[in-house]
Each structure stands twice: as structure tokens, then as C-alpha cells.
Amino acid sequence: MGRLFRKTKVATPKAENVVMNPAKQRFLRLVPVLLSVIVLFLGIVCIFLSASFADNVEPSYSWLEQKASAQRLEDSYGASFVEGSNDGVEYTSAKKGAIYCEGELKNTTLNETAFTYCRALRLKRITLDHCHVETKGRSFSELTTIEELYVISTPLTGNGLSEIVKMPSLKAVSLSSIDNVESIIPMLSKSKSIELLILYDVKINNEAAKSILKWSQLKGLRAISCQFASHTVHTIVKASNLESIQLPESKFNPSELADLSMLRSLRVLNLMKTPIQDKDLSAVGRLPHLEKLYLQSTAISDEGIAHLIDLPNLQLISMNHTKVTKRALDLLGKIPDLNRQFVYADNTAISEADLEQFRRAKP
User: For the chain, which domains are there?
Assistant: First the structure.
């Protein structure tokens, strides 16, 4: 047995005599490089995760100061026409020549730090877009310089609302894509300073309409792409304090405009892209102080325009994309104070030549 073992014994070669495979040599040379790349990648991931975690725990709002901008508003407080604006009327709430600073918070948690930055910047206008209010709400009333508040898909609770109505300089509130407007509007109506309510893509029920009717401080209502429940518009048009009603692209029963003539102070009416018919303009023709009327993209024809010839203060009318003809110009020519430069009839049966001739003609 011992002899057999000696015959099968194999001598172990020395290490220096072993020749390594070339492919293996190349792989071993690449190992340090690969390890460096992996370490670098993991470092970047850690930095990114740390930054994200830090933002979630204590967001940095220093960028808000960078976004804050100033612009000079030339119009005095009230409703003023700006050609080309989405709904025909630009409503501002600044004294002539005032500097306007605005900021936007998007996808952000509103904690004490955020409100501290807003107070320090003395913003005039602020937008809350898909935000979450973390504080108990008292911070809203401490924003003493805010005049316009735009809320987009940001839940507002009772505490926050009760503090919003205490904001001393707040003149305009905009609610966009918010579900519980029926509970928000009654709270906002308690404000002693809010004069303009802007609603976008919301459903308006009777409770909200009743609050608007009782809102004595409210001067302007702008409801864009909204859905009105039955009888809500009928209630709103009884709010005699309203000076501006804008319902562009909203859905409602046009017969509910029958009592519109009760709004003796109404100066601006926007019915763009609404289901109104010629007969519905009968009530519009009895508004003694109406100055600006927007009827673009409706089914209005010459018969509807005939209801408007007794409007003594009408200065502007937009009939773009309607069924009017040259006869509408003849009818409008009977309004003595109408500014013919502000008669718009694009994409109608009225030719550019006829419209230009109408504008040049003296009343």
C-alpha cells in the first residue's frame, strides 16, 4: 500500500512557475475600477436619499425668496379689462403703482418654517398648490400683507379657514379643484375684507349659493368651468352687492338668469362658452350700469343683441365665435356711449371691412 502511494504522488509546482490565464489577468485588473464605480454610485444614492429625507422632515423654503417677484400694477382697485386674458377681465386688488410680490408653494408641507418665510418676505400674493397644512392654522392670520390667496387642491380645515378670514389685508380668494366648497364658502363669507371670490373646476350647491347671497362684502364672483346645481344661479343673481359676475365655461340652466336685472350695481358680466340663448339676454338688457359684456363662443345671434340697445353705459362687448351678422352692428350703433373700438366680432358673419367701418363711424 505504501508503495502504491509513492507511485501516485504528484509534485506540487512552485508558484512562480504557474502561468495565469490572460483573460483572468484582465479581469483582475478591472476589479479595482469596478469597485470604485460601485462605491461612487452608492455615494450618490446616499446623498440623494439624505437630501430627500431632509426635505420631507424640514423642507427648505429658501427657494421661495428666489421665486418672489415684483411687478407694477397700473390699474387701480377694481375690475379692469385686459384684452386676451382667459376670462376677459383682470381683477386686481392693489392701489395704483403698488409693488406686488408673489410666491408659490407647490407639493409642500406648510409648517411654521414656511409661514415664517412668507411673513419675512411680506408677500402680497401667494399660491398654495397641492400643499398640506401642518400647523393648527393660526399662522394664516399672521400673514398680514397677503392680499390674494390662491388655493389649488389643498385641503382647508376648520381651523385654517377660521384664521384665513382674519387675514387683515386679504381681498381675493381663489379655490381650484377643491371638493368641500359648500363648507368653505360659508366660512369665507365671514371675512370683513374679502371682495373677490374665484372658483375654478368646482361644484357649487345651494348652500354655497346662499352664502354668496348673504356675503355683503363680496363685490366680484368669478366661477370658471364650474358646475352649478339647480337653482344656484337663480339664488346668486339676487346678490345685489355684486359688481362683477363671470361664469365662463360653466354649466348651469340659463333660464335662472331671469332675475339678473335685480343686480343694479353690476358692471361686468362674462357668459363666455355658456349655454345661453337669445331670449336669456332680455334680463341682461335691463342692467343700467353694465359696462362690459362677454358673449364669445355662445349661440347668441342678432335677436339676442336686439335686447341690449337700451344699455346706457355699455362700453365693451365681445361677440367672437357667435351667430351675429352685420345687423348686430346696426343695432349696437344705437348705443350712444359704446366704445366702438371695444366691439369684437371675430369668427362671425361680420367681415373685417364692415367691423372696421363700424369702428370708424361716428355715433
Answer: 60-275 (3.80.10.10), 277-363 (3.80.10.10)
